[in-house]
Specification:
The protein has four domains: about 90 residues, Immunoglobulins (Immunoglobulin-like); about 100 residues, Immunoglobulin-like, CATH 2.60.40.10; about 100 residues, Immunoglobulin-like; about 120 residues, Ribonuclease Inhibitor (Leucine-rich repeat, LRR (right-handed beta-alpha superhelix), Alpha-Beta Horseshoe), CATH 3.80.10.10. Helix content is about 10%, strand content about 30%. The protein contains four helices and 28 strands.
Amino acid sequence: MIRKIGAVIISLLAALAISMLCLVSCTEESPTEPEGDTQAPTVSLTSPEDGATVTGTVAVNATASDNVAVTRVQFFIDETAVAADSTSPYSYDWDTEAYGTDGDHTVFARASDAAGNTGDSDTLTITCEMPDVTAPADISSLAVQFFTSNSVTLTWTSPGDDGSEGQAAQYDIRYYGSSITEANWNVTTECTGETTPLAAGGTESFQVTGLDASTTYYFAIKTADEVPNWSGLSNVVSATTQETPDETAPDAVVDLTATDSSSTTITVTWTAPGDDADVGTATQYDIRYATTTIDESNWGSATQATSEPTPSVAGTGESHMLTNLETGNKYYIAIKTADEAGNWSAISNVASATCSDAAVVVDFPDPNLDDAIRTAIGKPTGDIMSTDLEGLILLSANGAEIMDLTGIEYCVDLQDLRLMNNYISDVTPLVPLVNLTYLDLYFNMIEDICPLVDNIGLDTGDQIIIGMNSLNSESTSTCIPALEARGVIVDTASK
């Protein structure tokens, strides 16, 4: 009996020992919080800052601590838990675009420990701004304003920042040798120095420089906002630059000579220069004379001749008669030549001659005109001298088969000239006949009457008969109206 009681006691003691060992072992391995832990963790948000304005995805970061350990940090947006992180550093990537509209939102963090204690951070107010995804409107008003040999000026109406509202941030203007498309945009030439866009609806302009002459270019624009969101391609325009400007003046005349034709006239001769130096055909002459030598310093005060001839092709012999001069005076004559671009040559060499009473021989190459002149002055044989023609005021040579009027320019006193029914085509020799009041050129072969515009003596009441001639369009549309504007009566009717 005593043995049984002892055995039971031993068994109870052994079980108690085992229980104690188990209690000690379990206490060492599993408890992480001391009994009675009531201290809450602390937590604070480190970003973003309170009052910040954010867009897109934003990192929300927090720091937390506890007397034992922080088990997790939760993030709340507008009082709603949206994420949790159990590993320091504690963070959450906040996609603000999910809201779809701009606005203010509250943000705070909550830290927890193993005992279930929690602590909240300060609440931040954050403004979410939705990203700008609206590009400026495509430009549809691009146009070419004007162009030169090396530049083109473009105009257009400015679009907006968002579509057609607001103010965009930049332009990208490009040009190319063929039409511009989205496909070839990246290989086109980008301009530099584009203007900053005006507010929507403004009138814009830009000059593209550094272009080649006589070349066709295509132009287009894209517009960007501050993001940048880029518009699509504008309408495409083109322009062909002008030819390289003519900056080459005619050569100066170097062989000007002067001879006295009569007591009141001097004839000057020279070789025509070109349009560009000694090549081509110039546009106009400016012949001047004075009783003292002429140079660049007094060119403007010298007397300009009237009815100068239109320049012939380079290398052609030219001549002009100065009329109404003073007998006995020595005159100095010089000439300048201009091209169609207004480039003037330097002054020519200066020629001189004295108007004397000495007569000169006048040659009439057309034998029929020679006969008519001899009949009119009563000199059937011998040289016709310039003095023989003085006082000749009427010449009638109708139906005389005259073709060439050369030499008639010496008949400076002519007032009445009748040359109906001949074969005359060139009326240039009539230009110096400034005393003419009646001129009959009916039924000839004249196409160009324009030289008569240079006869400054033709004015109010003077009459020209020019019917039955095949006049060119310039004669009928320009030169006849010019004569009529001076009061000249021009009769183009068929008799």
